[in-house]
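As described in the Methods, two query proteins were run sequentially through the folding procedure within a single session, without resetting any intermediate state between them. The first query and its resulting structure tokens are shown here.
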Amino acid sequence: MADEPLIRDISDTARWVAYYRALETERPDAVFRDPWAKALAGERGERIAKVQSFTDKADWAWTARTYLGDRFIMRAVEAGADLVVNLAAGLDARPYRMPLPAALRWVEVDLPDILDYKAGVLADAKPACALERVPLDLSNEDARRGLFARLGRSAQHAIVMSEGLLIYLMPDAVRSLGRDLAAQPAFRHWITDLASPGLMQMLKDQTGDLVAQAGAPYVFAPPEGPPFFESCGWKPVEVKSMLKTAAKLGRLPLALRMIAMLPESNGAQGRRPWSALCLLERKA
């Protein structure tokens, strides 16, 4: 319909992100390759990206996040992780595109419609590891606790991932999720992205209307930065700046390269536009 919003719901943001993965994949010097990204993004994902005035300047952030996520996961697997739990998995294709051991279990959790869409696009593809998809609304606390308990009992060393999820949650909801994850001894590590208040305001100015109309406004950007997670049973053990990572990968626009040379800071960021991928460890 002509009056249909470009982003109909939060799941459409997964198509948007897949488009950026497709752009990186097409580069001759790609730092990762996702041969399914273009099909997953579809025409809607491309339209969402191209309607943004900063599309040709922002792909570096998604490239950096994906690259860092790949590295964190591979390190965990090499260290003995036997389960990856991907919350709000969206259109992530890591079980198909990464060199994962066949014995690894990978569980994707997201809303039914987006998982069904992904399953259709990837129907002829074969994952590298054992893949399970769980249709679940993560805001249903009883249901997610039941799922976490089941998965916790079946694993010795699990790593949780939640890319692109927390920014849409209120701080109390993030704490509740963190506590539910920490309640499972087998869930040893948690990978999540984090934005500063300054970056969140910038995102609101640039894309806030689109996501707000879809019922998913940006809300989570804790002033204290990564130490926020101490309040729900997790401690930051590694924090990787998207900006600095993009600079190292040669993906940063010229206008931002001088900023990337500033000293790193993993604490409170305030009005500084900052984002990072954080590796959290469950507190004993």
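Immediately afterward, the second query was submitted; its sequence and tokens are:
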Amino acid sequence: MTSMMALPPIMVAPNGARRNKADHQSLPISIEEIVEAAEACWKAGAGAIHAHVRDEAGGHTLDAGLYGELITALASRVPQMAIQISTEAVGIYSPSEQMQLVRTLRPRAISAAIRELVPDAAGEAEAARFYGWCRDEQIHVQHILYDASDVSRLGQLMSNGVIPAGQPSVIYVLGRYSTNQESTPGDLGPFLRAAAALPQQLDWMVCAFGRNETHCLEAAMRAGGKVRVGFENSLWNADGMLAASNAERVAEVAGRARSLGLR
């Protein structure tokens, strides 16, 4: 999908769909907590937020009303920050329900896994209509890719017109299937090799799990990529110590970016 907006070099993912206060007391759950975390992360160096909302019990939800409330609050408190909403299914939502959220909300940016929205050839026609609608509505779609086979599938979907031509925005998820979801910088290589075989260049970003998150993101920045950091994927600083907050994680990664001469 052609990028209608350029995502900034550093994005924060402060909560995700699965972790809760038992994992870290500073993990933001309520809308007010998410907004406060976003403002602190903006000041620390994150130009965008990858947003999840939770229901009253703290569970994952794709409730358009809650997302609308969060977007309004973020736009008021941190107007400079780009907002990307998650359409993650978490085994709860169907592709049609994920797409309906976007059609109802009309956000400026979303992330969506091709495995979820286009699970097989039978779903390609509806997915093509959805991606085309996003293009017409100027909604930035970041495609979530979990391994090199997803990169190849992206190329196929572009070739057959399911995903509109252009420079697709993607995020490589490092370590999703590694032991204990502990990523390593070497996990990036297969993604980049698979992407090199595509006819189009990708606007790519990386997220990584576990205690090696900082090292993985630094490797991505060295290779020319953008990065997503935060408690959705990792709670630890590079020294192995538990981070105090999402802002502390952002600050460490922003510091690595500056040391590499990046903005």
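The two ends are 26 Å apart (CA to CA). We note this only descriptively and draw no conclusion about the first query from it.
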